[in-house]
Amino acid sequence: MPRPISATVSVSALAHNLATVRHHLEQTAAAASGLPPSIWAVIKANAYGHGIEQAVTGFSKAQGLAMLDLDEAVRCREAGWGGPILLLEGFFKPSDLDLVDRYHLSTTVHNREQLDMLARARFTRRVDVMLKLNSGMNRLGFSPAAYPAAHERAMLLQQQGTLGSVGKMTHFACADGPQGVTEQLAVFNSVTHKMPGAISVCNSAATLRFADIAVSTPAQTHWVRPGICLYGASPFADAEATSFGLKPAMTLSSEIIAVQELKAGDSVGYGAIFRAERPMRVGIVACGYADGYPRHATTGTPVVVAGIRTQLLGRVSMDMLIVDLDPIPAAGVGAPVVLFGEDGPSVDEVAMAAGTIGYELLCALAPRVPVTRDA
């Protein structure tokens, strides 16, 4: 019998979260007397650990999908996705363009070398691109000074029949914090406002808090690129996902596999960093950092055992962790445990207790953890 640990991915929760984001965008657009933007559902990193095929099904009503990996883009096509697919980092070698052409992919273009490769390529059909501006995050994108020439060259490739649509995009560094998007948006608008083409600037945080900047008009289509919020986690440190009506799409579950009775002064786990102040019962859970649970989670990290909230004790080891059973006197071997997700603590709560973010926990799910799909 396999270890009693599994992750459940809810396709219905994925669909619910997409519908919730769409409703928010529609309300924002209606208030501004505009049109809602189109949605690229971001499914990079194996759909944030949830699985490409599950994401294709759950996000079937998105206008497009966006990711980084060419292999994942091919999997989307093989899973039946016929809509737009955007490569968020673009392509890396001239040979990548064979797959871009064969699978009808759209691509981000963020440097001169990519424009050079496009100019030399021979396609069976035009390739749609999003030309990326570095508006201040200083990761990918043409500088504001270099962007006009890059756009002019892209438009020339369009005239020559190599490119199809040429859109404009950037990425916000502080949409989830007090600095917001004002400064970067001003840079983007000042550089691109006279250039034709679709616009894409909003990630999850900007989609939820600044959706008004993505309202479309008959003359200007906007695309938003929500990621983490579609999986039921929050992009904000100061707001829970449930406050936006989002549902967790991944639940990590296990069981109690042993119980120990501690005396006052007894310690648990490596390093003996937790010592009991009184007699107490603790449960050993079949989940550790080799399963993707954060090793740096500390005493007090929330866990739900048999439907009752309790806490992690001591240090997480490779295959096990230890929880306080005093709040659940009836719990013993075989008692169900929810590490995060539906009917348990949110992935954001666990991440905060571990000094990280929910993104990392979802993406860190180890291959040895069985994943089941829940419609």
From TrEMBL:
One of its GO terms (cellular component) is cytosol. Its cofactor is pyridoxal 5'-phosphate. GO terms for biological process: D-alanine biosynthetic process. Its EC number is 5.1.1.1. Gene3D superfamilies: Alanine racemase, Lyase, Ornithine Decarboxylase, Chain A, domain 1. Keywords: Isomerase, Pyridoxal phosphate. Pfam families: Ala_racemase_C, Ala_racemase_N. HAMAP family: Ala_racemase. Belongs to the alanine racemase family. This is Alanine racemase. It comes from Achromobacter kerstersii. The gene is dadX.
